[in-house]
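re: ur question from earlier - yeah i can do the single chain one, its not a big deal. heres the input i used so u can compare w yours
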Amino acid sequence: MSDTGLPAGASPLLHDVARVIARHLYRPAYRIRVHHADRVPPSGPVLLVANHMSLIEPQLIFGFVPRRPVFLVKQELFDTLGGVTGVLLRKLGQLPVRRGEPDRTPLLDAVRLLRSGGLVAVFPEGTRGSGNVEKAEHGAAWLVRASGARVVPVAARGTARPPGGRRRFRPTVDLLFGEPFTLDVPRGRDGLRSGTETVRTRLAATVAELDEWRAGAGGAAPGRSEAR
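and the output i got, formated as tokens:
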């Protein structure tokens, strides 16, 4: 990684242009509110962990996090359109990961980025779901153990239509950046399991905080917020 914060071969210019697009792409369809983006440390190794309900959250986080983010992206997306999408994603600085396979190459690449002071983003749930973070894979805790990165939980709500709900007109989407925390992940599988549970519970708590605030229907925002 160079001082751009991106993997070798990535285009900083293309990355920055894509982030501007991501900040504005969904504005016609959603009212977007961003809370506490200032909690993201401005420098040093940071691992963002976020909940996941749709394909929209990664794009919003990509656009609104105040640093250049490198995502671990499922290999299937790299393989679409005959591999053209993969070429674009690599130019944007994103890393492919094969789910369910013992391939540590992308994790080692992410560790190198973190140790160089970069910011890496992952979805610990491993797949899209309710976004309540009822389970988590071990990758996030492994990255923390290998890099010493600080962890920032990010909660997203509003991108998915409620079960049985009707199509909504310009629904409100919220992104809440939680308090950064450090995590000591002991060696061994037991240490990895305990570290994973800590990551899961901290992210779930951030999601619950956002849910509670949204249910309050107009109360004081959870920290400073900005509507987009």
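The longest strand covers residues 150-157. not sure if urs matches, ping me
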